[in-house]
Amino acid sequence: MHVAIAGNIGSGKTTLTSLLSKHFNWEPHYESVDDNPYLNSFYEDMRRWSFNLQIYFLNSRFRQIIKIRESGKNVIQDRTIYEDAYIFAPNLHEMHLMTSRDFENYQSLFELMSSFIQPPDLLIYLRATVPTLVNQIQKRGREYEESIRLDYLKMLNERYEQWIEGYDIGKKLIINVDKMDFTDKPEDLGIVIDKINAELHGLF
């Protein structure tokens, strides 16, 4: 079983991944943020480091998916390979922070990689408005995220909505997180767990 959580920066993916992995006894696979050699550089100079960063993510997520499928375990994954390809990379290209030459190269590589992988058994999308994202980003206090602009988050949100609307390669579950608090309200987590059970096992 491969379940993946998608959502904008600050939507609560890592928190929910951790909570669901404990509840269902799934093995969590997190996004490699702390050991990412490009992240700090990218936020300092997006134009210079955008292609390097996206290639790093593409490579690490592709390896992650191969590992998940080979393991034969029940796994929950924090962020998907599709978000990089359909949201972050095109957004950087549109903002003129990635050249067309680099973007085309990236897309070609993604198309090749995606032909070797299967989509998750269930994709959970965490929908959040920009104020919620900003609140969560400020709460966790990562230094390199302090410079993230509101218009950047808004553009990403628009791309997420477009992508999730057309996502048809597997089951999807959309959770609106604006009025939810998975960490401090067990009943909110309970609602999500019920919805996941319904999707995976058709219990309701």
How does this model look, in words?
57% of the residues lie in helices and 12% in strands. It contains 8 helices and 5 strands; from the N terminus they run βαβααβααβααβα. It has helices spanning 13-24, 39-44, 46-71, 81-94, 100-114, 130-140, 150-166, 186-201; strands at 2-7, 27-29, 75-78, 122-127, 171-176. The chain has a 5-stranded parallel beta sheet with strand order 2-3-1-4-5, with helices on both faces. The protein is globular. It starts with a strand and ends with a helix.
Helix fraction bin:
55-70%
**Which CATH top level class fits?**
Alpha Beta
Which structural class fits the helix and strand makeup?
alpha/beta
The structural domain count equals: 1
Tell me about the biggest sheet? Answer: 5 strands, parallel
Shape descriptor? globular
Q: Hey, roughly how much beta strand do the residues contain?
A: 5-15%
User: What is the architecture at the second tier of CATH?
Assistant: 3-Layer(aba) Sandwich
| Cα Rg | 17 Å
Spans of at least 5 consecutive residues with low confidence: none
Structure summarized in a few sentences:
The chain is 57% helix and 12% strand.
